[in-house]
Specification:
Layout: E1 2-3, H1 4-17, E2 59-62, E3 67-70, H2 98-107, H3 112-120, H4 124-141, H5 147-157, H6 159-165, H7 170-173, E4 184-192, E5 208-209, E6 213-217, E7 220-221, E8 229-238, E9 244-253, E10 260-270, E11 276-280, E12 290-300, E13 303-323, E14 331-341
Antiparallel strand pairs: 1-13, 2-3, 4-6, 4-14, 5-8, 6-7, 8-9, 9-10, 10-12, 11-13, 12-13, 13-14
Helix pairs in contact: 2-3, 2-4, 4-5, 4-6
């Protein structure tokens, strides 16, 4: 188990540590473009021919494929395309499966003629599966700005279509498994006009009755079904690294409020955050200013010991008001809907990040 005080510091540090993306192997929105060629390779080996069907010195234009190849390769049955050191006949052999079309297209780089030939040489069934997948990608994800955003969009919106093509990565492979991706969705509505200080503890009049979060993790509601009441409060908290957060804790109790049930919900909001859209997550490249985490924990000597993690948030929430002052001068208002991810199958195709945590992941819900 881990003390809440310590683990919050660890997660604050992770804002800057977890910034790399283990990307799902996929074609980006620019990789399958029937209208745009790689102008940087025009006239060069593996690139398209010039408009007059010529190529750079030592190369010839193979007009059927509009491709520049070595002179000795022109018209040769080797049909080497984008990489003449590779024996793959991109676009020339029949693609029996959608995955073979995809791999052929990916190997073509930005060569649209090569890409088209890959598709044309696929079987009718392979073409249909590829088209269904590709249309889903374009309908849902073509406006994503980065490869990480694009692949995460595919996992979220087109997993069945991508799986049918046979090219899914780790996140899609267990999309319907014990730790789905995303693992759940939460509606957030924090509305506090009082920031608890240590001097208030344990003044229950400073605690809000009700839930700031609703939603699900896995197949279960976030709220414990055995609970009768729910409460939350916000409190200033400074990490060992010197960062200060408003820490909002949600907990569930029985009828008389004596027995407390798992899970606990912890929302961290950096006091540097400003009103407007803010990213709540742990992936540093998205410049998060906060985090929602759902945990199981024990209360020992009025302290919260985290025993396992259910999920972390990744997404945007709207901060309407933030005044990081203790007492009645302080305030925090945050709302919105956000996706939740298990550390066993994390967002942006990061996959299993549980080894980076010193607290285990909770059993699937």
């Amino acid at each position: 188990m881990k003390k809440l005080l310590l683990i919050s510091a660890v997660l604050a540090a992770m804002f800057f540590m977890v910034s790399c993306e283990n990307k799902l192997t996929s074609v980006s929105t620019h990789d399958v473009d029937d209208n745009t060629a790689d102008s940087g390779k025009t006239g060069k080996e593996g690139g398209e021919c010039y408009e007059d069907k010529s190529c750079d010195e030592g190369l010839s234009c193979e007009e059927e494929r509009n491709l520049c190849v070595k002179n000795e390769d022109a018209g040769d049955d080797s049909d080497s395309l984008t990489d003449t050191d590779d024996d793959n006949d991109h676009g020339e052999t029949t693609a029996e499966t959608c995955a073979e079309i995809y791999q052929c297209v990916a190997d073509c780089g930005q060569n649209s003629e090569c890409q088209k030939k890959c598709y044309d040489n696929g079987t009718a069934e392979a073409q249909e599966t590829f088209t269904t997948m590709y249309n889903c990608w374009m309908d849902n994800c073509q406006n994503e700005q980065t490869t990480g955003e694009f692949t995460n969009c595919i996992v979220k919106n087109c997993c069945d279509e991508t799986a049918a093509c046979g090219i899914v990565g780790p996140s899609c492979e267990i999309y319907s498994g014990p730790y789905a991706n995303p693992y759940g969705t939460a509606q957030i509505n924090i509305a506090n006009n009082y920031i608890v200080s240590e001097a208030d503890n344990p003044d229950v009049t400073k605690i809000e009755m009700g839930s700031f979060i609703t939603g699900n993790i896995g197949h279960s509601p976030i709220e414990n079904p055995d609970a009768v009441h729910s409460y939350y409060y916000s409190m200033l908290y400074t990490t060992e690294q010197g960062e200060t957060f408003i820490r909002t804790i949600q907990f569930f109790t029985n009828e008389n409020g004596v027995e407390v049930f798992n899970p606990f919900v912890i929302a961290l909001t950096n006091i540097s955050a400003t009103a407007g859209s803010n990213h709540y997550g742990i992936v540093g490249s998205y410049n998060p200013t906060g985090l929602i985490m759902i945990v199981d924990a024990d209360i020992t000597d009025n302290d919260l010991d985290i025993s396992c993690y259910h999920a972390f948030s990744e997404g945007e929430l709207d901060i309407q008001n933030i005044v990081p002052s203790a007492g009645s001068e302080g305030a925090l208002a945050v709302s919105g809907t956000i996706d939740l991810y298990s550390p066993k199958n994390y967002a942006y195709s990061l996959g299993d990040i549980s080894a980076q945590l010193d607290v285990p992941v909770c059993n699937p819900q």
